Amino acid sequence: SQVRSQLSVLQSVLEKLQSRKLSSLDRRQSHLPTCEVGASCLVKKGPRFGRLCDCPRPSTCNFFFLRCL
């Protein structure tokens, strides 16, 4: 009886954590606009990189040139 109630509480906590993780992932993906190939996609400030936009599917953001290639 006590074990079942603890399991149900753990299950509800797990479901809440999974829904939060998905919603934060959705927010991050929808926040950045899509840039064109050859456009700058990163900014470097000291040792850190900041993303400006997401590159289209076949291309990736190059960390040396800071552009979509």
From TrEMBL:
Gene Ontology MF: a single term: neuropeptide hormone activity
Pfam families, per the entry: CART
Location(s), subcellular: Secreted
GO biological process: adult feeding behavior; cellular response to starvation; G protein-coupled receptor signaling pathway; negative regulation of appetite; positive regulation of MAPK cascade
Record family assignment: Belongs to the CART family.
Protein name: Uncharacterized protein
SUPFAM superfamilies (UniProt xref): Satiety factor CART (cocaine and amphetamine regulated transcript) (SSF64546)
One GO location term (cellular component): extracellular space
Keywords from the UniProt entry: Disulfide bond, Secreted
Coiled-coil region(s): none
Organism expressing this protein natively: Lates calcarifer (Barramundi)
